[in-house]
């Protein structure tokens, strides 16, 4: 199992819309995430900041499947008016955060 963490920000005043859109996540988006082997996906918020975390068999493979998905491209377009995300120019994904501590399994 590998872990992936990302950070982002909400456009000021758009947190409730962000939550609403995730509460109504498209079934086809869930299918892409499952096909990418993503599990235990959680997103936290403080102020306008977001922190996301998921587990998968391969971060590289999960990233490739998402990058090639027209559903993910549509989701990104749908979210761009409320979400501020830095993207890696090579992978198109959020830059991988470096793990600096872990307790337990």
Summarize the structure in words.
- The protein is an alpha+beta fold and 105 residues long.
- 35% of the residues lie in helices and 26% in strands.
- It has four helices and four strands.
- It has helices at 15-23, 27-35, 59-67, 70-79, and strands at residues 2-10, 39-46, 49-56, 83-84.
- It has a four-stranded antiparallel beta sheet with strand order 2-3-1-4, with no helix packed on it.
- It is globular.
- It starts with a strand and ends in a 21-residue tail after the last strand.
Strand content: 25-35%
Strand order of the largest sheet: 2-3-1-4
- The geometry reads as globular
What is the ordering of alpha helices and beta strands?
Answer: EHHEEHHE
Describe the biggest sheet?
Answer: 4 strands, antiparallel
Give the helix level as a range of percent: 25-40%
Primary descriptors:
alpha+beta; 105 residues; 26% strand; 35% helix; 4-stranded antiparallel β-sheet
SSE layout and pairing:
Layout: E1 2-10, H1 15-23, H2 27-35, E2 39-46, E3 49-56, H3 59-67, H4 70-79, E4 83-84
Antiparallel strand pairs: 1-3, 1-4, 2-3
In a few lines, what is going on in this structure?
The protein has 105 residues and is an alpha+beta fold. It contains 4 helices and 4 strands, in the order βααββααβ.
């Amino acid at each position: 199992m590998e872990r992936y963490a990302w950070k982002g920000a909400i456009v000021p005043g758009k947190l409730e819309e962000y939550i609403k859109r995730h509460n109504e996540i498209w079934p086809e988006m869930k299918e892409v995430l499952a096909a990418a082997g993503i599990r235990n996906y959680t997103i936290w918020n403080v102020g306008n900041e977001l922190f996301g975390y998921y587990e998968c068999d391969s971060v590289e493979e999960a990233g490739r499947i998402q990058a090639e998905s027209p559903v993910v491209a549509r989701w990104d377009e749908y979210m761009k008016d409320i979400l501020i995300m830095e993207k890696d120019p090579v992978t198109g994904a959020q830059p991988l955060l470096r793990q600096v501590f872990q307790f337990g399994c």
